[in-house]
Amino acid sequence: MRNRVLVLFSGHNDRAVIALCRYFSQCDIPFVIVASGREDLIFKTDWSDRVVICRVDRKLDIGLFKSIRLASNISSPDELIICQTSEYLNQYLLGSSSELSFIGINSFMPDVDGYMKLTNKESSRRIIDSILGLSFPEVMDFKKINTPCVFKPKKNIIDGVVLYPRICFSESEAKDVCQSINKEDWFVETYVNGQSYYLCGYLSRSGFFKSYWQTNLMQQPDGKSIVFAKIGKNPGVNVNKLFQNIYEEGYFGPFMMEVIKGESNNLYFVEINPRFWGPLQLCVDFYPEVLKLFLEDLGFDEVPNLNVNREINYDGGLYSWYFGSRGENIKKYPELMELPLDEIEELLKKNDVYFKSDTIELHGLY
C-alpha cells in the first residue's frame, strides 16, 4: 500500500484547516502543515509540531513544493496530497499538476475545465440554471444599477489577484465600486434578502456523494464569514440531480453551494465554492461520513467511522466562531429567532470552533 501523507496550508481559511486537523487526528491519518509564517495561528494549537515549513511570502512555485517534499521525507511518504482549502492554492494546483506529479505531489482534482465552470461566478450561474429550477437574482445593466446590489467578478482570480463580491446598499457605494473596477470583468446582481443555506458535501471520482445542509444564523458584513450556523434541512433542492449533473460536467471533490430563500419562498442561487468551507467543524461533529468519503477517494483504507450524536435542538447541532461574531454590523438571519434570544451569547461561546482543548489558546481571541 502506498504511504500517503496529507498536506494542509494554514494561514488562510483557518477554521476549515483546524477542522481538518481535528478529523485527520481522530482518524489517525498522517498529515503535515505548511504555515503561512512564524505568526501563523497554527503555532497556538496542538498541531504546531506538524509544521514542516514556514512560508516567507504568499508566492506559490515549484520550488516551494520541492521544499515541502524534502521536509516531509521525515515520514518517508510515497505521495503527498495537497488538501483543497483556498481558491488561490487550488488554481495553482490545477495549473501545475504535471510538475507536481513528477515530484510525488498530487491533489486529486478534476481537470481545469471541470473546476473552473463551477468556481467562477458567471459560469456557475449558467451551469446551475441548466440543472435546477432555482431563481436567480436579476442581472442589471451597469448604466441602470439599483441598490441594494452585489458586484460579482466573472472569474475569481484575474491577473493573480483574488477578487471577492462587493455588496452595495447605497448609490454612492455602487458608484465608487463602478469607478474602481474593470466592468468587463464583473457583473452586477440585485441583492436578495432572506434565509441563507449551504449545501455541503463531497463528490467522489466515481460519482458517489455524501452531503448535508447548513442553516446560517449570523454572518459578518459584506458577505464575509459565517459566524453562527446549525445543521439544517433541505429547503427544496434536488440534490441527487445536482450532483449527478455536476459530475457529468467533469467535477468531483469538495462542494459548497449557497442558496437563499427569499420572498414568496423562492429559492435563489448565490454561489458555489468547490473547496472546503469555513464552518467545516459542523461536518466533523455531525456528518463525518462526508470527510470519510474524501479520504477513501484519496486511497486511504480502513478510515474509521466516528460516533456522532445527531440529536439536533436549540443547544445542539451548532457551530460558531465567537471572535468573529464580536464585530459590528453582524447580519442576523431569520432562523436565529428560533433560538432563545437570552442564551445566544452563551451558545456562541460554548460552540466556538476554538473552544476545544487543542485550540483553547485561540478561544475568544482569534
UniProtKB/TrEMBL annotation:
SUPFAM superfamilies documented for this protein: Glutathione synthetase ATP-binding domain-like
Signal peptide residues are none
Superkingdom, taxonomy of origin: Bacteria
GO molecular function terms attached to this record = ATP binding; catalytic activity
- Protein's UniProt name: ATP-grasp domain-containing protein
